[in-house]
Amino acid sequence: MARTRLTRAEAQALLFEWTETEALRRHARAVEIVMRAAADRYGSGEADREVYGIAGLLHDADYEKWPEEHPQRIVGWLRERGEDELAHAISAHYSKWGVEPRSTLDRCLLACDELTGFIGACCLVRPDGIATLGARSVRKKLKDKAFAAKVDRGEIRLGAELLGVDLSEHIEFVISALRPHAAELGLEGPPR
């Protein structure tokens, strides 16, 4: 039995309808890629890949149009369609909202979202982008509060804790998931 009736094509169509900026669309795609890898590492592999990927793709779908209501618009849209598992994961992807992450899907989305965005920012300031990026460089940037200042470092640490993994190991996992998609995601470094 399928875990979600929502198809990736339907999820992408909604994302593109609600999100016009390329940067936020690219972030959604990056988190989708990492979440599909997380399904293999932390979930049940192929059985989880689609729902994990769609959670990553849609987690910020309402942010651009309704930032003050985020994530309630996308959560409501999913609940109306009987997609309660996806709705809960998205409602729990930021700990300060007070929604307890109950499942591995929920924990993975919280653990992958902020870190994926932060790694993307790291790639933009490296001449070779993600090609040679490692956990040591990312951890060094995490200590620099002025770099990507809007990224919540506490969420990144909490995410690794929720998954029960070392932060450096989790950083390497996210980098490895993103690296093959560097060109598509704009992670090849600053324009030359």
Please name the defining characteristics of this protein.
192 residues, mainly alpha, Hypothetical protein af1432, 10 helices
Structural description of this entry:
The chain is mostly helical and 192 residues long. The chain has one domain (8-179): Orthogonal Bundle (Hypothetical protein af1432), CATH 1.10.3210. Helices cover 61% and strands 0% of the residues. It has ten helices and no strands. Helix 2 (22-41) runs antiparallel to helix 3 (46-58), helix 2 (22-41) crosses helix 6 and helix 6 crosses helix 9. The longest helix has 21 residues, at 104-124. The protein is globular and about 45 Å long. The N and C termini lie far apart (48 Å).
Please give the CATH class. Answer: Mainly Alpha
Helix percent band: 55-70%
Strand tally is 0
Low-pLDDT segments, ≥5 res: none
User: Which architecture would the CATH scheme give at its second level?
Assistant: Orthogonal Bundle
The major beta sheet can be summarized as: none
**Ends apart, CA distance between termini:** 48 Å
- What is the typical, i.e. mean, pLDDT? 95
- Specify Rg, calculated over alpha carbons: 16 Å
CATH topology: Hypothetical protein af1432
Structural class: mainly alpha
User: What count of domains describes the coordinates?
Assistant: 1
Strand content of the residues, in percent? under 5%
User: What is the string of SSEs from the N terminus onward?
Assistant: HHHHHHHHHH
Oligomer: single chain
**How many helices?**
10
Shape: globular
